[in-house]
Amino acid sequence: MSTTSKLINGEELLAMGDIGRCELIYGEVVKISPSGFEHSEITASLGELLRVWNRRHAHGAVLEKGKGEGERGHSRFLLAGVTFRPLL
């Protein structure tokens, strides 16, 4: 027997109050855990490499973005928490 849960929207998630660390993905509440040491170390290194490159080329800004997740096909993966914003 399979069970289905009701999909919710952002307003309904906010109305739930503090339910811990979670994200709303395609209408489903997904519990998330804090990023670990290895992820933080990789993110810091990536940010520093982008900053060094940008100091030489001055094409934009390097910003901390926070942890994220990506999806391709049936796979989900963790994204680095740094982004490069080009000058317009």
Description:
The strands form three sheets. A two-stranded antiparallel sheet has the order 1-2. Strands 3-6 form a two-stranded antiparallel ribbon. The chain is α+β, with helices and mostly antiparallel strands and 88 residues long. The chain is elongated, with a radius of gyration of 17 Å. 31% of the residues lie in helices and 32% in strands. The protein has helices spanning 10-15, 37-57, and strands at 22-25, 28-31, 60-64, 68-72, 75-79, 82-86.
Count of DSSP E strands? 6
Category from helices, strands and their pairing: alpha+beta
Q: DSSP strand (E) fraction?
A: 25-35%
State the strand order across the main sheet.
1-2
Radius of gyration: 17 Å
What's the average pLDDT? 77
Give the SSE string: HEEHEEEE
Termini separation comes to: 54 Å
Q: With helices defined by DSSP (H or I, 4 residues minimum), what is the helix count?
A: 2
A few lines on this structure:
With 88 residues, this protein is of the alpha+beta class. It contains two helices and six strands; from the N terminus they run H-E-E-H-E-E-E-E. It is 31% helix and 32% strand.
What features would you highlight for this structure?
single chain, 88 residues, alpha+beta, 2 domains, two-stranded antiparallel ribbon
Q: What topology emerges from the helices and strands here?
A:
Elements: H1 10-15, E1 22-25, E2 28-31, H2 37-57, E3 60-64, E4 68-72, E5 75-79, E6 82-86
Antiparallel strand pairs: 1-2, 3-6, 4-5
